[in-house]
Write a structure and sequence with these properties.
The chain is of the alpha/beta class. It has two domains: 2-232, Rossmann fold (3-Layer(aba) Sandwich), CATH 3.40.50; 244-330, Rossmann fold (3-Layer(aba) Sandwich). The protein has helices spanning 6-19, 24-44, 63-77, 95-106, 141-153, 214-217, 228-231, 260-273, 287-293, 315-323, and strands at 2-3, 55-59, 82-86, 111-113, 125-129, 157-160, 182-186, 204-208, 223-224, 249-253, 277-283, 298-302, 304-306, 309-310, 327-330. Helix 3 (63-77) runs parallel beside helix 4.
């Protein structure tokens, strides 16, 4: 799966609207609908509490808040009890977000100004639609108050696109940052979501495509996020006639006094990746240690200059081992002794 920076996601949105003739208002509608669907699934998954918990939707004045207005409208239309709060100046709500604010009120749902005395209802849930990918720095004013309220609420939180207060590019949380129970990210995951400390703020991650064209979502210019699912095809199952000699020979030159763990970890990692034959060349005094630590890998004790460090006489057996190998790893834990 590809991941984007905030600027790349803005470009993808523009290209979707300009080249594919999908208006941004429709993308916002799809985004809010996806969030509402996830919240409804979560509500219905709580034993003994189907559709009973009130959902408080906390919206900022930007596009993230517009997604929240849409989610609130869809939830209400499907029978979920909702309350909507605007953390920001009403006059600053513009564009598609203003369209959806007006639509929400036309549907008879009041949008309350957020104040610091807000508390979620018992057994409720919060949708965090305060700050989006354009956020940088520190939350201010009513947005900061709303994040404080969410942090002390103790109820499940579903964040729209990313938790408010999180930098979409770096994954760095501000001093006030939502820790979501779930995050419904829009289009594609953002770069800051797949690295720590940002990853720890997401909770469970859901990706909503929102009608972004596949060609844009799979653009080779975007960063590839390697997951277990995407990496698995790179390691095809061995044939029934395969044996260790058909899967490569690796020579690892590693280890010195106090650093045998580096040699052992390198050998174990190589074997787990599918290498057939692994040999660890090490200073002779360390060979008994590595023979105990390593079961599957072989060891090659090498001449020493001092106890636990390689000597010049090790060069010839090292070259012989390299000549028999498909690949080599040189360096883990070798130390700095000349």
């Amino acid at each position: 799966m590809r991941v984007t920076t905030a600027e790349q996601m803005r470009r993808i949105d523009r290209e979707t609207a300009d080249a594919y003739r999908l208006p941004t208002l429709l993308l916002m509608e799809n985004a809010g609908s996806a969030v509402a669907n996830r919240v409804l699934q979560r509500l219905s998954a709580v034993p003994g509490r189907p559709m009973s918990g009130t959902v408080d939707v906390l919206c900022g004045h930007g596009n993230n808040g517009g997604d929240g207005f849409v989610a609130c409208r869809h939830l209400s239309a499907r029978g979920a009890p909702v309350r909507c709060f605007l953390a920001g100046e009403r006059s600053r709500v513009a564009g598609d977000s203003r369209v959806n604010l007006d639509a929400l009120e036309a549907f008879g749902i009041e949008v309350h100004p957020f104040d610091s005395g807000w508390r979620p209802p018992p057994q409720g849930m919060v949708i965090d639609a305060l700050l989006g990918t354009g956020f940088k720095g520190e939350p201010r004013d009513s947005a900061a108050d709303a994040i404080r309220g969410i942090l002390r609420s103790g109820v499940p939180v579903v964040s729209v696109d990313l938790p408010s207060g999180l930098d979409a590019d770096t994954g760095r949380p501000s001093s006030l940052c939502v820790r979501a129970t779930e995050t419904v990210t829009l289009g594609l995951p953002k770069l800051g979501m797949v690295q720590e400390p940002g990853r720890s703020h997401l909770g469970e991650l859901w990706v909503a495509p929102i009608s972004i064209p596949r060609a844009l979502r799979e653009d080779a210019r975007l960063t590839e996020w390697i997951t277990a699912a995407s990496a698995r095809p790179l390691w095809p199952a061995p044939s029934s006639t395969a044996h260790k000699a058909t899967h490569g020979r690796l020579f690892i030159l590693a280890g010195s006094t106090g650093l045998t763990g580096a040699a052992a970890l390198a050998a174990t990692g190589a074997l787990r990746s599918g290498v057939g034959l692994v040999t660890v060349g090490c200073p002779a005094d360390l060979n008994p240690i590595l023979e105990i630590k390593l079961t599957e890998a072989m060891t090659l004790p090498l001449p020493q200059a001092h106890s636990g460090t390689l000597g010049r006489a090790a060069l010839e057996p090292i070259l012989e081992a390299l000549a028999k190998s498909t690949a080599a790893v040189i360096g883990p834990g070798l130390g700095r002794c000349p």
